[in-house]
Prior knowledge:
There is one protein chain. By secondary structure, this protein is of the alpha/beta class. It folds into 3 domains: 3-262, Rossmann fold; 274-342 and 472-558, CATH 2.40.240.10; 354-376 and 385-463, CATH 2.40.240.10. Helices cover 26% and strands 22% of the residues. The strands form 6 sheets. Strands 10-23-24-25-21-22-11 form a 7-stranded mixed beta sheet. Helix 2 (46-62) links the parallel strand 1 (33-36) and strand 2. The longest helix has 17 residues, at 46-62. The chain starts with 14 loop residues before the first helix and ends with a helix.
Amino acid sequence: MATDEIKEELTPSNFIEDFIDEDLKDGVYSRVQTRFPPEPNGYLHIGHAKAICINFGIKNKYHGVCNLRFDDTNPIKEDTEYVEAIKEDIKWLGFDWDNIYFASDYFDYLYECAIKLIKKGLAYVDDLSPDEIREYRGTLKEAGKNSPYRDRTVDENLELFKNMTDGKYEAGEKVLRAKIDMASSNLNMRDPIIYRIMYAHHHRTGDKWCVYPMYDFAHPLSDACEKVTHSLCSLEFENHRPLYDWVVDNCVEGEKPRQIEFARMNLNYTLTSKRKCLKLVQDKIVDGWDDPRMATISGMRRRGYPAAAIRDFCERIGVSKAYSVIDFAMLESCVRDNLNQNSPRAMAVIDPIKLIIDNYPEDKEEELEVEYHPDHPEYGSRKIPFCKELWIEGDDFMAEPIKKYRRLYVGNEVRLYKAYCVTCTGYDTDENGEVTAVHCTYDPETFGGDTPDGRKVRGTIHWVSARDNATAIVRLYERLFNVENPSDEEGVGSFEDNLNPDSLKEKKAYIERSLADTKPGDKYQFMRTGYFCTDTTSTPDNLVFNRTVALRDSFNKRK
């Protein structure tokens, strides 16, 4: 889907747009330019989807520019794998960037800015250890104290910084700090580190550098380099805004970007910390970053979430500054609404028992023409074979029916979807008393489900031919965690202790033969069962389907 075909992802009015409208009216800017700046140290998650929709949504609304920039300032954690995955996720969500940049594109410029600050007397090389820097920093209630190296001369700082750049010191031995105010009420302004020594191979610059800029230094200058007008970021960077402004004010001439913060997406029953997600992957608790139980965009794509549903979800939650936790059921509702409208129907039996129609001719077989979707004739139809023996769901029969049970039990009549009405006459059991087969008779006058005599048949069940079908593995996914906050904060215990042991069940299923040619990513409603997506590992010889979401929201009922 082309970017210009995508509905605006933001509500008609929000505080970000109000700020932008004011800036345009006052002539602060004559255009609007945003960027999406992920660090390539992991896969994008559902929280990033909100940021993507906001940044690209602003671009669409104001006919502006939105760039993709990788803030690759920490070579220890970054990798080209993540770069490519991020690009794929953005494209899949339905957006496209105007330009693609890397913070590493500006390493020479950032270094020049550091030199500029030293020459202005606004930066110095510090020999304090990391522990000593933390100690000198003070607390929220107590002012920090100056480093004993804070008053080094400009010439001394220039020489020491050059030596850092030339690899003459050990990692952590020295850092370059901005000289701001150790008594500031904002801890971020208490002489923050802007460059550190790091001996690591960078995925783009190789071994050219052994000093790397800190994020709070590189980010605002990268924005300025790209001519960003509005730097939109999550609320945790609000206290960093004074430092953002300080850096651009002291390093950049002319037009400067404006930082605006919005509340990040907090979704219950999910884990979005890249560090913790990486642990899940490394410990093989999940099957990679795209495991369908993960809150990563790639995981949701593999599970079968439509991109449009995720965009719809981001639009529904809106843009605000208020902290809130969104119920995962709301996301599932968006997914369910989309799939209900757009997914072809098919029949699959996941917990099979045999249904034998005793009065149906042994050698007879019919082909039923059935549409794929009742509201989309353009989806076409398929032929479904019908014969004497069928597979039905195990819970569509009860030897001793409960009250208001309307499916098969001895003496009761039900419709077989698009076929005939059948009446249960008995059942077979094994030595353990388990039902192995259900017997019935059919009324040949009820083809298609109609009853010529007008009798009411309340129950309708789905089925698959026992003679002519395909088999598949279906993966029944539930949430990966049992608690609303699965992190290791706030006293809920280790996030590993909160794993749901039933987050994945695999079962062999019988499916319509028409699904034998399904391709990875194809989506279906398995009638009366749920919405499913063909897995990326699926092949014609080994069909695999992932349950995307149930037909109804059963989760909230279980909470």
